[in-house]
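Notes from the 1:1 (GR / supervisor)

We went over the backlog. Supervisor wanted to see one worked example end to end before approving the batch request, so GR pasted a single chain during the call. The sequence is below; no edits were made to it. Supervisor asked that the structure be written out right there so they could see what the output format looks like.
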Amino acid sequence: MSINRDKFGAMLFLCLALIYGYYVGDIPLLFGDEDAPFNARTLPNAIAWVMGVVSFAQLVLPANREAGSLLAAFRGMKWKPVIMLAALMIFYGLTIRYLGFLISTTIFLMGGFAVLGERRIKVLIGAAVPVVFVFWFLLSQLMGIYLAPGDIFEMLG
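Structure output shown during the call:
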């Protein structure tokens, strides 16, 4: 079996599934939930199993295009958008506490859309802002999850 980018990705996801599945056991359960059919470990366990089965199938089934070598498998890939999206994720993680959910998520989505090729500012705002406000409404108003406004608003007011 030669390694191409699909096989390499499948190996990475299989390792991720195994590690994730191992640490699912560390999720604390509420008293009395140990024998419940649905508890805090149910969905993470299902995600680990599905990810493991799919990545194992991807790994053992024949690929459409065998590359021959690992370097040939990664030749021609566009790494700049990947690195920029990873930087945006790091930026989002660092700013959500200070800017709050609404502002940092809007910046993250607009930046992500821009990295993926959208350049019209009206489309960027029109796509990001409604999504952010719908998710904010679902999380905070319907589900009752508290989303802190951000340290910047606490400093201002």
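Supervisor's comment: The chain has a mean pLDDT of 87.
Batch request approved.
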